[in-house]
Design a protein that fits this description.
By secondary structure, the protein is an all-alpha fold. The protein is 83% helix and 0% strand.
């Protein structure tokens, strides 16, 4: 009964660690999707194109238009890049945490396997 109890506890421990790993993997997937969305938004930054005639903004010269595009787009691009980089850093941390959890699962599984092998050896010796 003691051996069964130990094995059941080891199985529960391994399952819990695996569940933690699954949750971490799902969070990592969300974070990397979020980072990809920021990258996609960078390609959607508008460009100012002015028509002739109409209001004063529409009549702006090429230098003014280029300056507006440069300042506006640079600000938006920098903001999106900073947000994406933040998500990338978070994803790297989550990947590291996930790797540590996987290592813990492997260690516990190895321990359970060793325990079962030792019990098998012990029982075969006793029953001879």
């Amino acid at each position: 009964m003691v051996i069964n109890r130990i094995l059941l506890l080891l199985i529960k421990l391994i399952k819990t660690l695996q569940d933690v790993g699954i949750a971490q993997a799902q969070k990592l997937k969300f974070t990397t999707s979020f980072s990809a969305a920021y990258t996609a938004l960078q390609s959607q930054i508008p460009v100012f194109v002015f028509k002739t005639g109409g209001n004063a903004l529409e009549q702006a010269d090429t230098a003014t238009r280029n300056e507006l595009n440069s300042v506006f787009n640079a600000n938006k691009t920098d903001t999106l890049r900073a947000l994406r980089d933040s998500q990338d850093d978070t994803a790297k941390k989550q990947q590291s945490d996930l790797n540590q959890t996987n290592d813990a699962v492997n260690q516990q599984t190895d321990m359970a396997t060793t325990f079962i092998q030792q019990m098998s050896t012990l029982l075969s010796t006793i029953l001879r």
